[in-house]
Amino acid sequence: MTKTRKRNAKQEAQRILAEHSVRSAPVGVERIARALGASLEVRPLDEQLSGMIFIKAGVPVIGVNALHHPHRQRFTIGHEVGHLVLHRDRLEGVVHVDKTYPMLRRDQASSTGVDLMEIEANAFAAELLMPEALLEGELTTPLDVDDEERLTALSRKFKVSTSAMRYRLIGYFFE
Ligand SMILES: [Zn+2]
Predict the structure, then answer these.
(1) What spacing in Å lies between the alpha carbon of 91 and ligand 1's midpoint?
(2) pLDDT at position 108, please?
(3) 106-147 pLDDT per residue, tens
(4) In percent, how much of the chain has pLDDT > 70?
(5) Residue 15, CB half-sphere, CA atoms under 13 Å: how many?
(6) How far is ligand 1, taken at its centre, from the CA of residue 74, in Å?
(7) pTM to 2 decimals?
(8) Burial class of 142 by CB neighbour count within 10 A (0 to 12, 13 to 18, 19+)
(9) What is the distance in A from the centroid of ligand 1 to the CA of 84?
(10) Span 37-54, pLDDT tens digits
């Protein structure tokens, strides 16, 4: 069931990418967030907070930790946009805070509803920032995820952290 939900999240990201005519890396995740009506607030937050999302007077507000690396901020924005696209009905009247680096959450079949939301938002963010179609264009020769040099070059091209790219390439987000 979790796998189906992740696949749905991935498809939703692909739909958004198509709607916004994204054809090259890096994906303009801030532009997409704004086009979806969200207001972005990049501010210094506690180190353990990556971001948050809430609806204020009908406007989605995405908060991002300014102290984190820009590539990590981009994944956070993608994650919060995932919540906006996938879970908007569950955001009314609450402030959704992402306390730990969402990437490090391990998938568990026995996930609670909240964990499932995080897993879905991560799958959405992974596909939004590292779209399958664009990655395929880069991976004309197989990439060894332990090849730090190539992994770093690929991560820079997509403006994501190397750990995000490694997780993406080993299929972590969608399996
Ligand atoms: Zn979240």
Answers:
(1) 11
(2) 45
(3) 544 445 667 889 999 999 999 999 999 999 999 988 888 899
(4) 91
(5) 11
(6) 14
(7) 0.92
(8) exposed
(9) 10
(10) 999 999 999 999 999 999
Fold assignment, 2-169? Arc Repressor Mutant, subunit A (1.10.10)
Residue 23 neighbours by CB under 8 Å, 6+ apart: 134
Q: What distance in angstroms lies between residue 50's CA and the mean position of ligand 1's atoms? A: 9
Q: Where are the domains positioned within the chain?
A: 2-169
Q: Is 83:91 a contact under the CB 8 Å cutoff?
A: yes
Within 10 Å of residue 105's Cβ, how many Cβ atoms? 15
- Alpha-carbon distance of 22 to 50, in angstroms, equals 25
> Strands of 39-43's sheet, edge to edge?
39-43, 59-65, 51-56, 96-98
Q: Ligand 1 centroid vs 68 CA: distance in angstroms? A: 16
- CB of 168 closer than 8 Å to CB of 133: no
